[in-house]
């Protein structure tokens, strides 16, 4: 696990099993579950690297999601989720999530989410301070 998650190779990693509740009527992971997993990965990574003070300073909110569905995942399969961030552009912070069967060479889904950090009191977007950028290798 690394704070400086700036690429697939240095990504923050979490492994889990596909659960029964993740499955849709077609017998594979529901598209909305991939979206949920992407949000959960962002939260896991943030909580793993940020101090309590930084976490209390603001909230992350989504501006945009893009998802490429490439291969199906089924109940009981072990899944590797990796997340990393690209350099911040203004108040926009692009975060990647790669979702694949454990040990697979190719992803089952790729998610690119644009997040923004908002002030806890004003709920207005704010630029990341240097200490926060450093957490993400920027």
Oligomeric form of this entry? single chain
Question: What is the strand tally?
Answer: 5
Tally of distinct domains: 1
pLDDT average, as an integer?
92
Beta strand %: 25-35%
Task: Detail the poorly predicted runs.
Answer: none
Shape-level CATH architecture: Roll
Q: Just give the CATH class.
A: Alpha Beta
SSE arrangement, N to C = EHHEEEEH
Q: What structural class do helix, strand and pairing data support?
A: alpha+beta
The CATH homology group name: Hotdog Thioesterase
Briefly note the CATH topology name: Thiol Ester Dehydrase, Chain A
- Continuous helix count: 3
For the largest beta-sheet, the strand count, sense and barrel status come to: 5 strands, antiparallel
Instruction: Specify the overall morphology.
Output: elongated
State the helicity in percent bands: 10-25%
Distance between the termini: 17 Å
The whole-angstrom Rg is: 15 Å
What is the strand arrangement across the widest sheet?
1-3-4-5-2
Overview of this structure, please?
The structure is a single chain. The protein is α+β, with helices and mostly antiparallel strands and 138 residues long. The protein has a single domain, classed as Roll (Thiol Ester Dehydrase, Chain A), CATH 3.10.129.10. The protein has three helices and five strands; from the N terminus they run βααββββα. The protein has a five-stranded antiparallel β-sheet. Strand 4 (93-101) and strand 5 (109-119) form a beta hairpin. The longest helix has 19 residues, at 31-49. The two termini are 17 Å apart. The model has no long low-confidence stretch (mean pLDDT 92).
């Amino acid at each position: 696990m690394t704070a400086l998650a700036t690429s697939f190779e240095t990504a923050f990693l979490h492994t889990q099993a596909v659960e029964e509740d993740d499955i849709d009527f077609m017998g594979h992971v529901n598209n909305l579950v991939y979206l949920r997993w992407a949000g959960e990965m962002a939260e896991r990574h943030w909580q793993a690297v940020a101090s309590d003070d930084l976490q209390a300073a603001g909230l992350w909110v989504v501006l945009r999601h893009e998802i490429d569905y490439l291969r199906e995942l089924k109940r009981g399969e072990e899944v590797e989720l990796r997340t990393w961030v690209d350099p911040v552009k203004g108040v926009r912070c692009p975060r990647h999530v790669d979702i694949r069967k454990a040990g697979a060479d190719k992803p089952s889904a790729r998610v690119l989410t644009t997040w923004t950090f908002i002030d806890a009191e004003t709920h207005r977007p704010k630029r990341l301070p240097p200490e926060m950028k450093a957490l993400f290798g920027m």
